[in-house]
Specification:
With 249 residues, this protein is α/β, with parallel strands linked by helices. A nine-stranded mixed sheet has the order 9-8-7-10-6-1-4-5-11, with helices on both faces. The protein has a two-stranded antiparallel sheet with strand order 2-3.
Length: 249
């Protein structure tokens, strides 16, 4: 079975975010960029399925600028087999991403698509669901465990107040949550090997998909600064301050 894994290049999770002076967005110039953490978990899960003999090939897909090849190479160094870069300098919205991925899936015919549940830059959490709907496939979101049984996938997913287990026939779309696995360390020899793995490049128009934006960002603002904390000398003093200065007590 072939597994398709979408991966996105995002601002590194450890980088302090700054808003552009004109409020048009987040400043990305010279900032460290990385593979979206939820996508990294998806790559790891696909590799584990291949190591278990369930999958035969892992194909990564990224949509973005030429520099997005970096995150493809990172996933290839983890153990994926080949990559596809749909190159565009436009900011692609979730629906357009889903349409591009559907076009790639129509060509590649994977048995399973594993995607991060959301990207940490826009937190949209929409692409996996839209992709499943466009393909007409079953879906299981927020997966914390994935087991392939014959022609179906049994997925344990995190819901409010507990866990839920669902079964969906293959092919299907599964989106990953944080507790699914711990991504592996990428060794230097594997980084070198990843440089020789194939990465196919194409444009959105090659797939017949328009990435023209439908949304307009009106303004982006810095989060308000948090007030400085205070130290109290005793629990009684804390209770007194809560009673006098807040509505908590």
């Amino acid at each position: 079975m072939k597994i398709l894994v979408p991966v996105k290049r995002v601002l590194d999770a450890n980088v302090q975010v700054h808003v552009k002076r004109d409020g048009s967005g987040v400043a990305l110039e010279n900032a460290k960029m990385s593979l979206n953490p939820f996508d990294e978990i998806a790559v790891e899960e696909a590799i584990r399925l291949k190591e278990a003999g369930v999958a035969s090939e892992i194909v990564l897909v990224s949509i973005g600028p030429a520099k997005a090849e970096d995150v493809l190479r990172n996933g290839l160094a983890m153990g994926a087999d080949r990559g596809i870069l749909v190159q565009t300098d436009e900011s692609v919205e979730p629906l357009a991403v889903a349409k591009l991925l559907r076009a790639v899936a129509d060509t590649e015919q994977p048995g399973l698509i594993i995607a991060g549940k959301q990207a940490i830059d826009d937190d949209s959490n929409q692409t996996g669901q839209m992709l499943a709907a466009l393909l007409g496939w079953g879906q299981a979101t927020f997966a914390s465990r994935v087991v392939i049984e014959g022609d179906s996938a049994v997925v344990t997913r995190e819901v409010d107040g507990g866990l839920q287990t669902v079964r969906t026939s293959l092919p299907a779309v599964v989106t990953t949550d944080l507790r699914l696995n711990e991504p592996r360390y990428v060794s230097l020899p594997n980084v070198m090997k990843a440089r020789r793995k194939p990465v196919q490049k194409m444009k959105p128009e090659d797939l017949g998909v328009s990435v023209a934006p439908r949304l307009k960002v009106l303004a982006t603002e810095e989060a308000p600064a948090r007030k400085a904390g205070i130290m109290v000398g005793s629990p009684a003093e804390l209770v007194e301050k809560l009673r006098a200065e807040t509505d908590i007590i």
